[in-house]
Write a structure and sequence with these properties.
The complex is a heterodimer of chains A (274) and B (415). By secondary structure, chain A is mostly helical. Chain A is built from 13 helices and 1 strand; from the N terminus they run βααααααααααααα. The longest helix of chain A has 27 residues. Chain A is globular and about 60 Å long. Chain B is of the alpha/beta class. Chain B contains 8 helices and 18 strands. In chain B, the strands form 4 sheets. Chain B has a 6-stranded mixed β-sheet with strand order 5-6-7-3-8-9, with helices on both faces. A 5-stranded mixed β-sheet of chain B has the order 12-18-17-14-15. In chain B, a hairpin with a 2-residue loop joins strand 8 and strand 9. Chain B starts with a strand and ends in a 33-residue tail after the last strand. Classes of the chains: A mainly alpha (274), B alpha/beta (415). At the A-B interface, strand 1, helix 2, helix 6 and helix 13 of A face strand 1, helix 1, helix 2, strand 4 and helix 3 of B. Strand 1 of chain A pairs antiparallel with strand 4 of chain B, so a sheet runs across the interface.
Chain lengths: 274, 415
């Protein structure tokens, strides 16, 4: 127990401070909330965590049938089903984690009005619970790659970097919407639509080389573009499109800072508004 | 050593804030450039509150509902921020504004202990160390691995409180969490809290249970309308508080006829709430009847005058209105003089909480209101923890404006 630590409670100031030390001190709570989300998500389901695998696999099957019949994308030497699956597991993580995070405060209203802890932990826990599902679907992807006999190159070492970016931008969006949802319940209606548009605008089931060359960097402002491009290049040993990846990385970072700013501006009022 | 220092603490709420409103309203408000919210809509939940707490002190906070107790606890627990002023707390703070915060029905008792412990700010190692103690205290050993949704309310509350009771902070902030739960376990919790107090911890305790306050607290702070009314030795302050409560709420009289509310036909002279023993009572047991006595003068003979009482709860909801229909003067013109009308509300009828009374007298033909005094008296209906009220064995929150004891019949149709 820390002896004689002094807590000062003051009116919200105009200065925005982010106390990383405090979040670190509460890391066990982050762990337990993540663990709880994971634990209860598949309670009373017949096949449990298999859903985390079934969703991307079934969607991939549909896309593969659809696009190998009606439209043929140039996915270089990667089989389309593998291409689609690699995009879909990232997208399903982004989609489910943002959806869950955006509702996290509304669902945990009693936590916010009854206990103090760094509020950022709530949307972060929802995001990390999504990472748990991702691990399973990622395992399927690796198994598929081995099945197709795709050679792995040194580039696979860069996969964690792109996954980190994916988690960062997902956490950012989740945090942003979770805060906005406390004040504006419009988020509940707007978000599914936004996610739909975002999915179509991102190279998930089509390759980024379909995007017109001169607009490529504009598309890269969507962080998901660079993340998907980089993730696939790293996995399949294809050449990296560094300018796209750089723009997307900066965009993801800017997004995270913006989300943090909005969140910090709003968090003091959560308990009074929720 | 001073552990808590509260300086000029204020919290302002704007009426209407607190409700999440939609984007559309915000945008339309922006374009309309509507007037800034009028000052009458501001509400000081706390206003310029100052006090200090010494190490090892057990401080009770009392006051009517809406006096600012919850707001003060929320600020001390860092759940909400003050509008101005400051608080300084030395040491680790544990706050207990609700038991079982974060409990999840699908998780087992064991899992909920860890989860709830973490939410209350305990480290995992700390929970592990105290785990057996927590389980023993809660008396639910056998059901440790059963999801808590299969627990009875009593078991659920016991488990939830056991985790909380093993919090080991330097400063413990407790809201009225003991209001529910069986009496035996409540006593055990109070004992546990007293032990905590005696081990040199500082405790801040809010309760409507004056007995618990007297037993636990040496010093009491009385909040009234967001301001600190009194601060001092608990017996003294509690005495004053109870006195004021009984004086302002259970009885009201007008000594001078000219100042009494009413018209040239009838004037209200006094209203009193009394229990079945005839004692003026600001609070009654939910199972016992309560009487409202209205005294008034009739100043003009020849009119049929019907006294009536309107009953409201704290949320301003009209519980019911009762007119004198069988008091003997329903069709009988009154002669000049002083009258007393009494209405008796049976026990096991009102819901627990504060009941606010409006006293009135009217003539029906033509319809005229002679006097109508709003919020003239009020009384508290105290919930019962015995099993003979409408609550039965249920210990949770029981909403509703009335709580009659009704007859139930259950028959088995087949098996």
């Amino acid at each position: 127990m820390e002896e004689s630590q002094i807590v000062r409670i003051k009116p919200p100031g105009s200065l925005i401070t982010l106390d990383f030390a405090e979040i670190w001190a509460y890391r066990e709570l982050l762990y337990f909330l993540t663990w709880r989300d994971v634990k209860i998500r598949y309670k009373q389901t017949a096949i449990g965590v298999l859903w985390a695998v079934l969703q991307p696999v079934l969607t991939t099957a549909i896309f593969t049938v659809l696009f190998s019949t009606f439209a043929r994308f140039n996915t270089e030497n990667v089989p389309y089903s593998l291409f689609a699956l690699s995009g879909l597991i990232i997208w399903l993580f982004v989609h489910s984690a943002i959806s869950m995070a955006s509702n996290s405060f509304v669902n945990h209203a009693n936590l916010v009005t009854k206990v103090y802890f760094p509020r950022l932990i709530v949307p972060l826990a929802a995001t990390f619970a999504g990472v748990f599902d991702f691990i399973f679907s990622f395992a399927i992807l690796i198994i598929m790659m081995i099945y197709y006999g795709l050679a792995m190159t040194w580039q696979i070492a860069l996969v964690p970097f792109f996954l980190f970016l994916a988690i960062l931008q997902t956490a950012a969006f989740g945090t942003l919407f979770s805060a906005l949802n406390v004040r504006f319940r419009d988020v509940k209606f707007a978000l599914p639509f936004l996610l739909q548009v975002w999915m179509i605008a991102s190279p998930i089931f089509y390759p980024a080389n379909l995007l017109p060359g001169k607009w490529r960097l504009v598309f890269a402002m969507n962080p998901l573009t660079g993340i998907l491009e980089g993730f696939r290049s790293a996995l399949f040993g294809a050449p990296f499109d560094w300018p796209v990846i750089a723009v997307s990385s900066i965009s993801a970072l800017a997004l995270a800072l913006f989300a943090l700013y909005v969140f910090k501006r709003m968090e003091d009022k959560f308990a009074d508004m929720i | 050593m001073q552990v808590i220092r509260v300086e000029n603490l204020s919290k302002l709420y704007f009426l209407g804030e607190g409700q999440p409103y939609s984007l559309r309203e915000l945008i339309s408000g922006f374009f309309q450039r509507s007037e800034p919210r009028s000052r009458t809509q501001d509400h000081w939940a706390l206003h310029e509150v100052n006090f200090q707490v010494e190490e090892g002190e057990t401080l009770g906070i009392i006051g009517h509902n809406g006096a600012g107790k919850s707001t003060l606890l929320k600020i001390l627990s860092r759940i909400t921020k003050p509008s101005s002023g400051s608080v300084e707390i030395r040491g680790r703070v544990g706050s207990l504004l609700e038991v079982g915060t974060g409990f999840h029905n699908e998780l087992s008792g064991r899992e909920n202990i860890y989860l709830n412990g973490a939410i209350l700010g305990m480290k995992r190692a700390e929970i592990q160390k105290k785990f057996d103690e927590i389980v023993a205290f809660s008396e639910i050993e056998k059901f440790l691995d059963t999801p808590v949704k299969h627990y009875s309310t009593g078991m659920y509350m016991r488990l939830a409180f056991s985790v909380a009771a093993h919090l080991d902070p330097e400063v413990l902030i407790v809201d009225e969490v003991l209001a529910v739960g069986d009496v035996g376990f409540q006593k055990k919790c109070l004992r546990k809290m007293r032990d905590v107090g005696e081990s040199g911890r500082t405790i801040i305790f809010v309760s409507h249970d004056m007995q618990a306050i007297t037993r636990l607290c040496s010093r009491v702070i009385w909040l009234k309308d967001g301001e600190l009314q009194r601060d001092g030795e608990s017996k003294q302050i509690l005495g004053e508080y109870l006195h004021e409560q009984s004086r302002t709420s259970a009885e009201k009289t007008w000594g001078i006829l000219e100042q009494a509310p009413g018209d040239e036909i009838a004037r209200l002279r006094g209203v009193r709430v009394y229990d079945e023993n005839g004692q003026t009572a600001s609070s009654v047991d939910i199972r016992r009847p309560v009487n409202i006595e209205v005294r008034y003068d009739i100043l003009e003979s020849g009119k049929v005058i019907i006294p009536n009482c309107h009953f409201y709860n704290e949320q301003g909801i009209c519980i019911f209105i009762s007119h004198d229909w069988n008091g003997g003067w329903r069709h009988r013109p009154r002669s000049k003089g002083s009258y007393t009308s009494t209405v008796r509300i049976p026990g096991n009828f009102l819901a627990a909480g504060t009941v606010i009374v409006t006293a009135a007298a009217s003539t029906y033909e033509p319809f005229t209101v002679h006097f109508m005094e709003r919020d003239v008296v009020a009384f508290n209906v105290n919930d019962s923890t015995e099993n003979d009220s409408a609550r039965g064995d249920y210990t949770g929150v029981l909403p509703g404006v009335v709580r009659p004891v009704l007859d139930w019949q259950t028959e088995i149709n087949s098996n």
